[in-house]
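INTERNAL AUDIT FORM
Audit reference: QA-55
Scope: verify that the stored structure record matches its stored sequence.
Auditor: D.O.
Record contents follow.
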Amino acid sequence: MSPSPQLAAARATSDLDVPPAGAQEPAGHPDRVRATARIRAAHNGRVTTLPQLRSDGPFHLRRLRTDGNAAKVGIIGAMSAPLGGDRLTLDITAEDRAELEVTTAAATLALRGPTTDAATYDVRLTAGEHAHLRWLPQPLISAAGSNLHQTYTVELAATSRLVLREEQLLGRANEEPGHLVSRILVHSAGRPLLDQHTAYGAPEPGWDGPAVLNGHRATGQLLIVDPRLNVRRDPVLLGEGTKDGCAVLAPLAGGPALLATAVAPTTSTLRELLDEAHALAR
């Protein structure tokens, strides 16, 4: 996760934020980091508090100011991570009636490490009854030579709400991406809602072909789960007929939930497509 001196208000990452290939990598990373950072939000009857905020390894957690009764946490990278062989976990819980938003200060940069073993980056999200959890990080960049397995494991109560956004940039400027495998596993009220697996970069077959990314290098998803959703019956296609990417917003069978999937040539265009899908869903 790229280090930052301070965490300002969350902002969209432009293409200028992406480090070029061959840039000097941050030093000071120990071999095979094992780290688990924890965030727990609880509602005290008036506002959401943060009874647990435990930083670890590359994850430095900071409370952010908010307007209203919600809590907001920013994650600052304390060292370069994930690298090959790292085992990183974020455990985030919004208890009953809590409202929590979690973001990152900068893009997460997956790099080649001292070993060719895959790094793992597990994000565990849990939301209780009538809780509202928003996971809105900056993009994940898969640099050349990196090998990363990322997993989202989400457990939702029947009345909880979720906004989960993931954005991935495959390779920095003028370089091929590393190997990136991602899985999103969501249960709502104990029932499966979404189980999705994607894989990009060598040695995956056909990942860059017309049936998958069609030459695009930015891809991402937006998952919205909300009992109040007025779910559309038919998928909606956004950006059709342009060279600047496209997105599809579709209902999930176990809803009420909507999933937007987008591909684009740049991270800024990808964010615009996902923002458009979010506005349409609302």
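Auditor finding: record pair retrieved intact. The longest strand covers residues 34-43.
Action required: none
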